[in-house]
Backbone:
């Protein structure tokens, strides 16, 4: 099931929709269905431009917050960490060495999450351990390198080795919650309900919170990697198609697909 979902997901996201739409336009034009092709081209162009601007991106971001009983939950103050057992950072991807990359590196999302986790670790003066959770999400490469890579960085930044835990078995958000619960049960035997400070990207936080709740883990959200732009202000660039806005819109659509799929499978 994991591999099947990973293989079909790209075809449901905006980049593939645009590519398939443009392919359909080309076929219609070659078939001399010019009017229909031009109408479809206009729709695809409008779809792309909308998702590439703040005008389309912001409603998608805000719609994710509607899933939460308290929309301010994603802005919780991590200082209210009474009873928390660990700061948990969810993995966001890493890349292996290649012909133009001499070493393995954390992806952009992972760096932002890890850095915020380190900020919280120092804010709590090392009282709460850091748990970096997540293995490989690539169905064709099951061996994850990310937790070990994150640990190497953290130790070089002064985190004590006994205070940096890793979990490398989970491949998605649902498995994150399951494996985190299992690890906390081992580390804190006899505790009936665990409590954590959770670090992940702002856009991913609603699904992560719902999944952790389903697993029986109380969560203090501490989001990182916030969407670009001030949600209360429109500026010149808000009306221009930009690649980072399109990427953010795609991430929101991906989260909605993930949430819908989890609900259908009873994971939320």
Residues:
């Amino acid at each position: 099931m994991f591999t099947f979902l990973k293989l079909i997901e790209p075809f449901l996201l905006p980049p593939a929709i645009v590519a398939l739409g443009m392919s359909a336009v080309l076929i219609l034009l070659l078939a001399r269905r010019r009017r229909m092709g031009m109408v479809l081209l206009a729709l695809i162009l409008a779809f792309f431009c909308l998702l590439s601007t703040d005008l389309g991106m912001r409603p998608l971001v805000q719609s994710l917050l509607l899933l939460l009983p308290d929309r301010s939950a994603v802005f919780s103050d991590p200082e209210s960490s009474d009873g928390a057992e660990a700061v948990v950072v969810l993995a966001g991807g890493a890349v292996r060495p290649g012909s133009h990359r001499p070493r393995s590196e954390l992806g952009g999302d992972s760096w932002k999450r890890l850095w915020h986790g380190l900020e919280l670790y120092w804010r709590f003066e090392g009282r709460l351990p850091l748990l970096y959770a997540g293995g490989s999400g690539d169905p064709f490469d099951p061996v994850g390198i990310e937790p070990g890579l994150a640990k190497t960085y953290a130790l070089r930044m002064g985190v004590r080795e006994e205070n940096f835990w890793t979990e490398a078995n989970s491949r998605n958000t649902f498995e994150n919650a399951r494996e985190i619960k299992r690890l906390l049960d081992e580390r804190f035997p006899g505790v009936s309900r665990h409590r954590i400070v959770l670090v992940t990207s702002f856009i991913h936080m609603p699904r992560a919170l719902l999944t952790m709740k389903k697993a029986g883990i109380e969560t203090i959200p501490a989001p990182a990697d916030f969407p670009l732009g001030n949600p209360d202000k429109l500026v010149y660039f808000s009306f221009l198609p930009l690649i980072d806005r399109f990427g953010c819109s795609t991430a929101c659509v991906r989260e909605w697909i993930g949430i819908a799929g989890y609900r259908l499978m009873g994971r939320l």
User: Anything to note?
Assistant: The beta strands are 86-90, 94-95, 105-106, 130-133, 164-167, 194-199, 217-221. The first helix runs from residue 2 to 8.
